[in-house]
Amino acid sequence: MKRVVFHSPVHDALFVGRSAITGRGLFAGTFIRRRAKIGEFEGEVISIAEARRRAARLRVVAIVELDRRALDARGLRSGFRFINHSCAPNTFLRRTATRAEFYALRDIRPGEELTVDYGESHHEGRLRCRCGAPGCRGWI
């Protein structure tokens, strides 16, 4: 697994690697304790309308909507833009008016892929889910 290391404000041992779910994923380089803040989604700050325009024409979407703005991480080469969806995730996303923060739902082992439930997404139920979790909903 090729490691491209980046530094999260909270955990400086996260890395991007090949995902069993799809494409590349974000992985824990060290043990992460349940409920710990892992880091924040970063990207270009754009309007919600612009986020939806961009998402409609993209195959891979790396956009998180906040209250009145959105963050588009498409141009970044590392970070939470690589966190994949799972119907049985090990992280959750806390959104505020200006931030999108990731926290551990449970203890996460070193080398484990970080996943989040995308919930309502720009895919609008049209993208087949590949998470493989028991009880997978089948679509994102």
Describe this structure in words.
With about 140 residues, the protein is mainly β. It has a single domain, classed as SET domain (Beta-clip-like, Beta Complex), CATH 2.170.270.10. Helix content is about 5%, strand content about 30%. It is built from 1 helix and 11 strands. The longest helix is centred in the middle third of the chain and has 9 residues. It is globular and about 40 Å long.
Question: Gist?
Answer:
Helix content is 6%, strand content 31%. The protein is mainly beta. It has one domain: Beta-clip-like, CATH 2.170.270.10.
CATH H level, superfamily name? SET domain
Residue ranges: pLDDT <50 for 5 or more in a row? 1-7
SSE order: EEEEEHEEEEEE
- What is the CATH architecture assignment? Beta Complex
Radius of gyration: 14 Å
CATH fold node name: Beta-clip-like
Strand content: 25-35%
Q: What is the count of structural domains?
A: 1
For the largest beta-sheet, the strand count, sense and barrel status come to: 5 strands, mixed
Helix content: under 10%
Mean pLDDT: 87
Distance between the termini: 26 Å
Q: For the largest beta sheet, what order do the strands appear in spatially?
A: 1-2-3-11-8
**What is the global morphology?**
globular
List the total number of helices: 1
* CATH class assignment: Mainly Beta
Number of strands: 11
Task: Report the structural category.
Answer: mainly beta
